[in-house]
Each structure stands twice: as structure tokens, then as C-alpha cells.
Design goal:
The protein is an alpha/beta fold. It is built from 13 helices and 15 strands. Strands 4-3-2-1-11-12 form a six-stranded mixed beta sheet, covered by helices on one side.
Length: 418
Amino acid sequence: MFTFLHGADIHLDSPLRGLESYADAPVDQIRQATRRAFDNLIALAIEERVAFVLLSGDLYDGEWKDYNTGLFFVNRMGMLRKENIRVFLVSGNHDAASQITKSLRLPDNVHLFSTKQPETVIFEELGVAVHGQGYHTRGLAENIARNYPQALPHYLNIGLLHTSLTGRQGHEPYAPCTLDDLLACGYDYWALGHVHQREEVSRSPWIVFPGNIQGRHIHETGAKGATLVRVEEGRINAVEHRELDVLRWSLCRVDLSVCATMDLAIDAVRQAMETEQAHAEGRPLAIRLQLIGETQVHAELHRESASLTEEFRALAAGLGEMWLEKVAFATHRPVTLDESLGTETPMADLIQAIDRLDFQPAALMELIPEIGMLRSKLPPELLHEGELIAASPGGASSLGEEVKELLIARLLGQGTSR
């Protein structure tokens, strides 16, 4: 009987984005989060006395500023070496982008798989065969899974692969392959990487994305960690997710439909924050509030959005170890504009004209050409993670609706004051 640990998408020293501009931001937690999460992975491996650790790509976050990132990794591999724990590693798209990575000498307990073709390492004393291939270039578009060898008889066969499979939202389609491609190899466990949300693609055989070990922005919410696998008599008998993150991101949706006053709305926000904090189990928490529902305080919410954002930020600060990344005002009016204003008054005409404004990306690009210029200079991976207006049609549409609602709320000047 033995265990092994499967992690992926470590992104050592990757910055956490979304809190940097706030004076009360958790600077130390932000700067050291990925390292501290990786230290948790090392501690888990030692505590569980695992036989080996699998790292399925994107250990690093592209080119390093200096050798400190690599030296940190080598030091942690040395800690595993002292415990006789081996490490099997494939490079991912971010690793392939680093030139320094290619010249780093690794301890002898670490095996970095070839980037030219799949290779197999036999762990004879455990009866394990590990197969893998890394990325030789950042934008790997070929299906390398088709070249993986067939499972070796009388061994527990494991495949390491950094892939998008047939595609996952928010991730570039690197090393694409199908479920059938993986099944055809006959392996007992596929240790996948690249997708940052944990997913058990299959349980027979096990095909697992463990997700990344530390969320880095609001699009990487919830518990993050690695997968611990227990093997008995040559067969996998348990697969467990273990949480490793040190700062958690959360999208906190608050339905204000039943809130007739602003005081009730603020109470609802406070209660939602407290619930999210409880789920974080003592970890620092970065949240985005999304206020939804048809509510009587809709107009006041939009009219007072700036001051309310600061009030909500103060609520978060008062709870301790919680920071507000953003507030999305996405509520709706309980009645239509026509019902509340009529259809033949000057005010109704003006408000309806605002409601018909076009805030589609093309129109915004004409109004603000600098957005298009900035977008063209961004690396590809930031285009789906950023918050720029032009990054996605949905983002532009959402922002446009917020602008329209703010204008209408200011014109109406109505709503219960606190």
C-alpha cells in the first residue's frame, strides 16, 4: 500500500490580481501566497509519507525576474529528497516560456520528462510506470496524447499531461485531445494539468484535473489544492481533494428581492459576508459582491453606488481578514420605466433614450480608442482574465448596463433615503 500526491498549475510567484490598489490590501499574503500554498503541498506530502509527487505543468509563471523562484523550488525538492520522496514533473505552456527554467539543475529525486516525445519511468519497487511529455513551445497545438505508449502489463500506469482536453472555458486550447485518446492508452490514472478548476473527468479510469493550488484572482474562486491518491494491491482505492490555499477568492451573490429599505439591503450584505467567511475556514478572504434581484431599492443602489461600495468595504474590514475586490450592482427595477413614469412625458422620453443607448464593444472602441490599443499589447492569457471593457462582449454589456442604470437613477432622484 502506498500513496501519491497530484498537483498542477503551481504558478510560483504569480501575483494575485484585484487587490493591489487598495491601501488596506493584504500585501504580505498577496506576495507570498503561491509559495505558502506550495509549502502546504510539501508539508502534506511529508505528513502523508507519499511515495512520489506528480506535478502536471505550469510550475512557474513564465519568465522569472531572477533565479530566486527556481532556487525556492529546488530547496523544496531537497526537503522531499530527505524524505525519500520522488517527484515527476512535466513542463506546461508557462514553463516553456521561461529560458532560465531550461538551465536549472534539479535534485536527483526529480524527473523532468522530455519535451520531444513521451517517455516512461519505471518505479520498480512499487510496480508503477509513469508516462509523460512536456511542452517544447508555449503554444503547443498538437495532440501529443496520441503518441503516449500503451499501458505496461502488471504495472500501475500513470500518465502526466498538461492539456485543455476538448476545451475548457477560460483556458487556451493547448495540447488538445479527447477522452477517447486518453482511454485508449489503458492507464489507471491520468494526472492532468492546465485547467484551474478541479474536475474529475472520469473515475473509471481516474482522469483528474486537481486545479491550481492557490487562486490568483476573482475568476479562480473556491477551495484550491491537490489530489491525494491511495493505492492498495496495485489498484487505486481512494482519491481525495486536499485544500492547500492560503487566501481564498469568493463571488458572493446577494439577492435583495425582499429588501424594502436600504438598511435591510445592507443587513443582507453583512449576513452574506459572514457566511462566506465561515466557508473560508479561517483563511483570509477576497470577495466580489454581486447584488441581484428585483428590489425596491434598485434606484438608490445605483444612485449611491460609490458611497455604498465604500460602506461595504468597511463592513468587510470590520469582519477581519476580508477584503472587497469589487461590487457589481446587478439588481433590477420591480416595475418597468413605462409603468412608473408613463410614456408621454419629457422625463420619460429622456430616460427611455438613455435606456436605448448602445454600449456594445464596437461602439465603445470608437469612443475610447485607447482601450483597443492597450488590449493589443496584452499577452493572450490576460485577455480572458482581465477586467478591461473590450476584453469580452459580456463585460462590455454588463458595464454598459451599470452606466445606464446609474444615469437613470440620478435622473429619477427617487428611493428611500437612510
